[in-house]
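Schema walk-through. Below, the input block comes first and the output block second. Nothing else is stored per chain. Lengths vary across the set, and this one has 67 residues.
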Amino acid sequence: MAIPGDMLKKGWGVVRQQPWHLAGVFASSADAEALARQMGEGYAVKYGDHAIGSPEFSFSNPEAGLR
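--- output ---
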């Protein structure tokens, strides 16, 4: 099942690290924040690289985020 922003290579990802889940990738941090709030506890917004069509998303600092 495709996620929001599945075709973006770079952007604001909404992620949960344990267990790993990429909920979406967005061009704007505001849109990512809105989804993170919807997803609930454990989800954070990170800026990084996304492998198109996959759940792979990498970011430089796993502890830093907007949330």
